[in-house]
Amino acid sequence: MAREITTEELLHRLHSGEERFFLIDTLPRESYAHRHLPGAISLPLEELGGRALRLLDQKAEIVAYCSGPR
Q: What's the rounded Cα separation, in Å, for the pair 49 and 19?
């Protein structure tokens, strides 16, 4: 089930280390190389479908982020 989480919730989860989850950066590789959240895996949107099934544990929670409204 997909749901949105807040930036604050994500930061808390990253810093607490209590919960195991995959953090996916869906921005282009250039953006990832320039700046990304610690622990994030680069999976640009155009590659997400094919690579996600091979790389990620489908039973684990997956948190994806991308560019939002500016």
A: 24
What is the structure's pLDDT at 70? 46
The dihedral of CA 52, 56, 57, 61: what is its sign?
negative
If you write DSSP's letter for every residue of 4-27 in order, what string do you get? ---HHHHHHHHHH--S-EEEEE-S
Q: Which amino acid is at 59?
A: K
Contact (Cβ atoms closer than 8 angstroms) between residue 19 and residue 13 = yes
Q: Is pTM, for the whole model, over 0.90?
A: no
Using the structure block, give the residue that is written with the tokens 């094919």.
Answer: 50
Average pLDDT, the chain: 83
**CA distance readout (Å), 58 to 14, 23, 26, 53, 67:** 20, 13, 17, 7, 24
